[in-house]
Design brief:
The complex is a heterotrimer of chains A (263), B (373) and C (80). Chain A has helices at 27-41, 78-88, 100-104, 108-117, 162-169, 182-194, 208-215, 220-230, 234-237, 242-245, and strands spanning 49-53, 69-72, 93-99, 122-127, 173-178, 199-204, 231-233, 249-255. By secondary structure, chain A is of the alpha/beta class. Chain A has an eight-stranded mixed β-sheet with strand order 2-1-3-4-6-5-8-7, sandwiched between helices. Chain B contains 13 helices and 15 strands. Chain B has a seven-stranded mixed β-sheet, sandwiched between helices. By secondary structure, chain C is an alpha+beta fold. Chain C has one domain (6-76): Alpha-Beta Plaits (2-Layer Sandwich), CATH 3.30.70. Chain C contains two helices and four strands. A two-stranded antiparallel ribbon of chain C has the order 1-4. Chain C has a two-stranded antiparallel sheet with strand order 2-3. Classes of the chains: A alpha/beta (263), B alpha/beta (373), C alpha+beta (80). Chains in contact: A-B, A-C. Strand 2 (69-72) of chain A pairs parallel with strand 9 (223-225) of chain B, so a sheet runs across the interface.
Chain lengths: 263, 373, 80
């Protein structure tokens, strides 16, 4: 709680920042807030970090809103650029924030190799299951059958399970949350920042304007409700059958949980 | 003053030049005929507290070089034609964001996979126009193992002075030849100008006089983007005026410095009737053949541009103004040729001359026959 | 019994994108603190406003779920 008349996270935002360019109801803002809360809770300084982001709506979370060193890269390549930053300046906390298309389609090769190297990076993958910025094209994470603007007859192929993908590639901290669990996003970010190695946090995020409309999930409020219903905490998931877990998202710290971890 | 004299492969000389200039970060991907540069630096960077990393591909290599540069390192990569093609998007990013770095292209036979170990001057146009959009690139062409050392140093110096990527266009012959290299005790390389926190709104980008660089880790909260941006680095993807400003300023920065960049070697041009122009390794052949022709009593001169981009149009026009004919020797089907034609074609007859067999050296008898024709 | 904590719920109407596309804060608040304002902001949107701060129990769900960082709580002196 605060007695100032400014949003408590306002001090971390670039001066002159007006209302964001995110669509109304977009999950990006929730994630931005959750990340800043982690930094604030830790008493960290924005100058301790370098934010690296790719092309797509999620890339606009740190760029331009975070008042910190920010590297807004070419599409799909933030992990490659981040590798250079971290190796040349190991003392920097390098945080990559980018979308599912940027990180796993065009950037897929860099994703698996960055995970393989287990380089000390914190990666927040904003997964809205669509290409939002360019108008609603299919992504590697779009559920089968969804009619997008480039799959008008229904998306084909199983969507990636990004957490399993990066775990298999070598990531040593992997967690998944949705924007319906902002406090847990914050907690995972804090854990990822202390984790020495490749830390990957997937956040399922609502894109009401494109995914919501195309999939029929609907408004931001409705998508929020669906995310709550679709989330199954890890410990509970252990006692469910694959059939029961179909179309659900297991949320929690999936790899590298610290002791006394998730419920 | 020479510190030591070594017999070095061209690629090794390039690596040594990079180290002498202060390069302490290399990210690259194996590709013939450039791989020796990576191998040399893989051994020599760690003992100097430098970083070597083999990335998963050339796109990642160029990305890592840019990231490292923003983190404060003098960074480089080395590749060949196919890898250069992959790097182009990120080279454009480096131009846009004014990231100092060096990209060595040891050219090989193309197009496509072509022949990896055969020299070719395949990338003259790709060097200037391989990335999309309007931009100016700086590119130097070495012709010897010594120049692989010297021009790599110069490339870093220019990159730091102009806050821009600088290309080194070598080829399989120059990269793989072994020659005596004189290594000086010290080299000159302009130190990077870093922005200060009390800049008082001083530009961080888009200054034709070159803005000091707002490096990461200096509390400057730099915003670096390949999107159209303003002097503060802030993105503007709405206003055409912003794009106009961004494009013109970026190109203007290089054009503003053009005269300082030019290095064009020449000989026997004043009374030459025919002038042979060649760049890189072929430039050595042009000089040798012109000299041989002179000794045989023919009025032949030679020109070897070392700075190949920006293009030395005014310099060539001045040197060729009284020549009847200009023969552009290139190990390709004529990539510098049209630019020479545009620069000197009004006064001289300009023809291109590839080697009889592409991928091999020009034979003196073939060139002299063309001269006589 | 300790006096109930009191909050002033701040809503920055200029940052709010309204309830047609968003409305997350209204959806998560179960204390009827918020409502749609009659006024319109510069963006042509009716933002949310806190009409009943005295009903706020400090759960912060509105704060955490607002994508526009438009809502925050200020703890004020508890009523006697």
């Amino acid at each position: 709680m605060t007695t100032s008349t400014q949003h408590p996270m306002g001090k971390y935002l670039r001066p002159g920042a007006e209302a964001t360019t995110f669509c109304p109801g977009c999950g990006d803002g929730v994630i931005a807030h959750s990340v800043l809360r982690a930094i604030d809770d830790d008493g960290a300084d924005m100058d301790d970090f370098v934010f690296v982001c790719g092309i797509g709506c999620a890339g606009w979370i740190p760029s331009p809103y975070f008042h910190a060193d920010t590297l807004h890269t070419t599409h799909g390549r933030p992990l490659a650029f981040a590798t250079g930053v971290k190796l040349a300046r190991p003392q920097a906390g390098v945080i990559v924030i980018s979308g599912d298309g940027d990180l796993s389609a065009i950037g897929g090769n860099h994703l698996i190799h960055a995970a393989r190297r287990d380089l000390d990076l914190t990666v927040i993958c904003v997964n809205n299951r669509i290409y939002g910025m360019t108008g609603g094209q299919v992504a590697p994470t779009t559920p089968e059958g969804v009619g997008t603007v480039t799959t008008p007859y229904g998306a084909e192929g199983r969507p990636f399970d990004l957490c399993r993908l990066v775990e298999a590639a070598g990531a040593t901290y992997v967690s998944r949350w949705t924007t319906a669990q902002p406090r847990f996003i914050t907690r995972s970010v804090k854990r990822a920042l202390t984790h020495e190695g490749f830390a990957f946090i997937e956040v399922m995020s609502q894109c009401p304007v494109h995914f919501g409309k195309l999939s029929g999930e609907g408004s931001a409020v409705r998508m929020h409700e669906i995310m709550q219903d679709q989330s199954v905490p890890l410990r509970q998931a252990a006692s469910l059958s694959p059939g029961q877990l179909q179309d659900k998202w297991v949320v929690g710290e999936l790899v590298g949980a610290t002791t006394g971890g998730e419920r | 003053m020479t510190a030591e004299t070594r017999l070095l492969q061209g690629n090794a000389a390039c690596a040594e030049g990079a180290l002498a200039a202060g390069c302490r970060f290399f990210a690259g991907y194996p590709i013939t005929p450039a791989t020796e540069i990576a191998e040399h630096l893989a051994r020599e960077l760690p003992p100097r507290d430098g970083v070597f990393i083999q990335m998963e591909d050339e796109i990642a290599s160029m990305g890592a070089v840019i990231g490292a540069s923003w983190a404060g390192a003098m960074a480089m990569t080395a590749t060949s034609g196919p890898g250069m093609s992959l790097m182009q998007e990120n080279i454009g990013y480096a131009v846009s964001t004014e990231t100092p770095c060096v990209v060595v292209d040891v050219q090989r036979g193309g197009p496509s996979t072509g022949i990896p170990a055969v020299p070719s001057q395949s990338d003259m146009v790709q060097a200037a126009r391989g990335s999309h959009g309007d931009y100016e690139i700086v590119a130097l062409a070495p012709s010897s193992a010594q120049e692989m050392f010297d021009l790599t140093v110069r490339a870093f110096d220019l990159a730091e002075r102009l806050r821009t990527p600088v290309l080194l266009l070598a080829d399989a012959a120059v990269g793989h030849m072994r020659e005596i290299v004189e290594i000086p005790a010290t080299v000159v390389c302009t130190p990077r100008r870093v922005a200060t926190a009390d800049g008082n709104g001083a530009p961080r980008f888009l200054d034709e006089q070159v803005a000091p660089m707002p490096l990461f880790g200096h509390g400057l909260k730099a915003h670096v983007t390949g999107s159209c941006h303003d002097e503060a680095g802030m993105r503007n993807v709405v206003d055409a005026e912003a794009l106009d400003h961004y494009v013109r300023r970026l190109s203007g920065k290089i054009r503003h410095a053009r005269d300082d960049l030019m290095d064009v070697r020449s000989g026997d041009t004043e009374d030459a009737e025919v002038i042979l122009i060649g760049w890189g390794g072929v430039g050595r052949a042009a000089q040798a053949i012109a000299t041989r022709a002179r000794e045989a009593g023919q009025a032949v001169g030679w020109i070897r541009p070392i700075t190949v981009w920006p293009f030395a149009d005014t310099e060539l026009a001045a040197l060729c103004q009284d020549a009847k004919r200009v023969l552009v020797l290139e190990n390709n089907l004529g990539q510098m040729l049209p630019y020479v034609q545009a620069a000197v074609g009004r006064r001289s007859e300009v023809d291109g001359l590839p080697p009889r067999i592409l991928g091999t050296l020009h034979r003196p008898e073939d060139v002299l026959q063309a001269v006589a024709a | 019994m300790a006096p109930k904590k009191q909050y002033h719920v701040h809503v920055d109407g200029a940052m709010c994108k309204g309830t047609e596309g968003c409305g997350l804060c209204l959806a998560v608040c179960d204390q009827d603190v918020l409502r749609i304002a009659d006024s319109m902001n510069q963006r042509g949107v009716h933002p949310v406003e806190a009409s009943a701060s005295q009903q706020c129990n400090g759960c912060t769900l509105c704060v955490l779920h607002c994508p526009d960082l438009a809502i925050w709580l200020e703890q004020i002196a508890a009523a006697a």
